[in-house]
Design brief:
about 600 residues, mainly alpha, Growth Hormone, Chain: A, two-stranded antiparallel sheet, 26 helices, disordered N terminus, transmembrane transporter activity, MFS_trans_sf, membrane, MFS
Length: about 600
Amino acid sequence: MASGYVPQVQKVAGMGIVEREMTTEGSNDIYLEEHHPRSMDKNGSDISMKSTTDVENHAPAQPRGVADMEAVTVIWTKNWLIAAYATIMLISFINSLQQQTNYAFRPYVVSAFQKHGLTAMTDVVANIVGGVSKLPLAKFIDLVGRPQGFLVCMVSVVLALVLMAVCQNVQTFCAAQVFYWAGMNGIDYVQNIFIADTSLMQNRLIWMALTGLPYVVNTFAGPSLGETFLDHSTWRWGYGTFAIITPIVSMSFWAVFWLMGRRAKKLGVMKREKSSRTVMQSIRHWCIEFDGKLSVIGLLLICGGFSVFLLPFSLAGYQQEGFASPMIICMIVFGLLIIGLFLVWERFYAPRTFFPFKLMKDRSVIAACFLGANSWIAFYSYKMYYSSYLQVVFNLSVAKAGYITNIFFIVSCTWALIISFAFKYTDTYKWGAIIAMPVQILMTGLLIHFREPGTSIGYLVMVEVFGAMASAMLLQIEQVAIMVAVPHEDIAVGLALLSVITAVGGAIGQSVSGALWNQIVPDKIAEYLPEASQDRIMEIFGDLNVQLALPWGSPEREALIKAFADAQKTMLIVGTCALVPCFVWVAMLKNSRMSDRMARKGLQA
């Protein structure tokens, strides 16, 4: 996802390589153990002829990336596994730090171009592309390899950071945000695949929750760092700094992959036949292979359709005629047409569908996907302008506003780890949804009352804490429900499907947020602003710096505070209503046991 609860929801997609059934391999395992005893290499790896033979026999029938990962798993040592998990934690720390500073910078970036109202719009396309990109990324790392996929994502992030540092308009910044979140979500995706490749089913959520702990630390460090750049330098240098740090840190994880792959080749476990194709022939081969595994046309249609349909809701406030503007009407109509064309293409013409419709036959898959979609519609519908609201209405600094908005990260990441142990030892998960859903809707409803000028900050913090706990539980449940419901070979696709649908839900929430903000706030400013200041309506509305420069207690500042409060109240009402269908999705969840799933061989964590 492109903002808000990013580190958690992006870990939804892609849990690893195809899990093989153990029941059909038992007899072969016994025979191979008897005739090919195990040996230890000089680094302590437990290698047997069974392992090597198994990899070689399976390699021709498997994509290159999957076969390479299984070969590396054979020779993986405990020390190298610890090193790999340590690099994941380090990358998570740096990524969370730059995400938190990005949230602090963003209102000031769009304000620099007099477009503060477009804060939500910068994430709409990024949210869609970041979620939908999981399916093609899954195919890429299966066909080409995990390290290569990780490298592509890292380059995308660095390129985006450079673009944000040098951007001269909102359009460039929005484009950079698309590259940024596609790459950032991809890095999380590859790391999650690695965790799934090396962890047991019942421990998987625990390890994933552990990778979220750096977000707890950076909840305070990120806003403070962002404020430091804004006060003593510029947001451009903030993005530029991370453009230097990110590749240096990220290469540590890639280096572990590379070293273990090299070792696997030396031991003869991973063999690579040299291709006789030329460069152009190789490019043509991989393009055909990639397109044969995934409908690229479907990918373009779904990204383009939802982007063109949802963007006008944020842009309408900047058109003189509003939603009656010909441009806005055309974008909405063409967006709907493209979405319809996507459905027709997938149903009748696609040689291989982009959207895995077959998985939607299971009621738990449907429930998990739409539970996530409705939750993110609600979350983003009122969260996008919260930092600006705290600075303007409560006169808080960038850092202090960031502390409050990031309470969600502290509590959700910590509670996700605790609740993962609870799910592990109870072996079920539906009970968590039954508890969390009423709490979630109650906390959102309470915000309608508490998010008013003059409310004690303590009440806002209390609601954030309980709301974050409920959200963390629901997210964990969505993931487990998918993993338990689908067959072994469909786990990665099922979780990518969850990411796609929740990404669309998040984009809808952001569009609703932008539409309400851009329609309500300027109208209310005009209503409350003194007659002498009526000519400053768009100047005040479009720039957060101008808003904060208004003297505390002045008629202009009071008018702005009332306008912000009115907009927030409407946004929260919409968010509360969006959560109502979640009761149906919770009821549809099956009360399955996680222990019913058989474990894959070779898992160490």
